[in-house]
Amino acid sequence: MKKNGFLEKYEEIFTPSAPMEDRELFFGREQELVDFKRGIRRKGLHPVVIGHRGVGKTSLVKMALHEWDETHTIIRVTCNARMSFHEFAASVLEQLGVDRTEIETIYENAKSVHGKAGIFSSEIGTSGNEKTTVRKAGENSVKYEPWGLYSYLASRKDNIIVVLDEYDRINSNNKYSKHFHENVADLMKTLADNAEYCTTKLVVVGISQSAQKLLGEHESIERSAREIYIRPLRQEDINDFLTSTEQDLNFSFHPAVKESIIQSSNGYPYYVHLVSLQAIDAMIDRDKSARSVSVEDFENGIVKAVEEAFRSVLRKYQGAVNGLKERELIFIEKFCYYPLNRDVYINTFRDHMQRRNIMGGQEFDSILTKLTHDQALFYTSRNSGRLRFVEPLMGAFLKSKIFKIQSGRNISKNQLDLEL
Ligand SMILES: Nc1ncnc2c1ncn2[C@@H]1O[C@H](COP(=O)(O)OP(=O)(O)OP(=O)(O)O)[C@@H](O)[C@H]1O
Ligand SMILES: [Mg+2]
Predict the structure, then answer these.
(1) Strand, coil or helix: what is 91?
(2) Ligand 1 pocket, 54 CB below 6 A?
(3) Predicted model pTM
(4) Residues 106, 223 within the same domain
(5) Is 238 in the pocket of ligand 1 (CB under 6 A)?
(6) Who is most buried in 75, 241, 242, 274, counting CB within 10 A?
(7) Which domain holds residue 191?
(8) Which residues, 6 or more positions from 358, have their beta carbon under 8 angstroms from its beta carbon?
(9) pLDDT, tens digit, for every residue of 188-225?
């Protein structure tokens, strides 16, 4: 029997948990690709790729490195909250297939040339207050330092690119993270200063608004870090992506569904993939041979998507909502009656609340200030005077899980008949 391609293929195309591998479906990133390649090509510069969660940072780096025609060895390290510089360096060396005894020899040589060994504990050139590691025989007896790692990298003939992904996980202010930041900054600076001897590049990737916030403030790296900010995708790009998947897979989204995915995604491809995948699953559960995603499939899909995201991304928001005062919750609940995650004019919302005697302007403004502070829940764009949830699935989550508001059938554009 001939296999039906659709059922096998759609899960390969909609991949919320994996970065994008298919160049044909990678839309809207031409400028970022150029910026990244420029950053990595230029001597002494190291790209720092930042942006919100799920905006496509890891995909961008993968795609750019894949397209870049230089021959290079790529090493990837996924950071975690308690990662030390030593662990990071050990992982790099291990991936490069390095034997530890070989390293010792290289560093002893480096020491005789540069007067620094660096590889072993705090001999020379370390930041000082870190616990001294005594050199013992055997595994884990050596402590890798930036200079040591640099020396090894400089001894290699190949072009190495070390990608530190999920760097934001280290971004708390505990002791470990401080040392990690300092050491990464040291390594970046050493690589930048010695670019003629060592072609290795660092690529730091993480959720942040600025390279400085991500890496911490280190004067030494201000000149060597090349910040590349990944913006949310434009609506046209998401439309192109969805249209291409329809063509490739020979199925269709109901036009209102497609529009709603585009509008509600806020430009976050993570959301687009997650919601599309769940909506198609719902379509198949309804009828295995169906090839048109209906409004109902989409709404069922959203509920599933929220459940799924809830386990990972949205859990922290429940805590945030739990701590709020009653009046603040009313503010949020009423906001949830607007169409899912559409930008809402603050003035319109304030008017609605006043006209229906739910809340006066002054109270509205002070609650707004609190909930937008540090982008805790809401994001406002002062220029356009609009308001939206920081995370694209936030509205759906609050609506279904917290306020239990039935989602209406009508998801078309002019749904401003609010039940405020
Ligand atoms: N330009 C694009 N066009 C279509 N889909 C994309 C694009 N960029 C990324 N994606 C998809 O978006 C989702 C999120 O991408 P990715 O994992 O790269 O984001 P991220 O910013 O690294 O996320 P996180 O902050 O969780 O690390 C993936 O499903 C990926 O396939
Ligand atoms: Mg990522």
Answers:
(1) helix
(2) yes
(3) 0.79
(4) yes
(5) no
(6) 274
(7) 29-229
(8) 330, 334, 352, 420
(9) 999 999 999 999 999 999 988 788 888 887 777 778 99
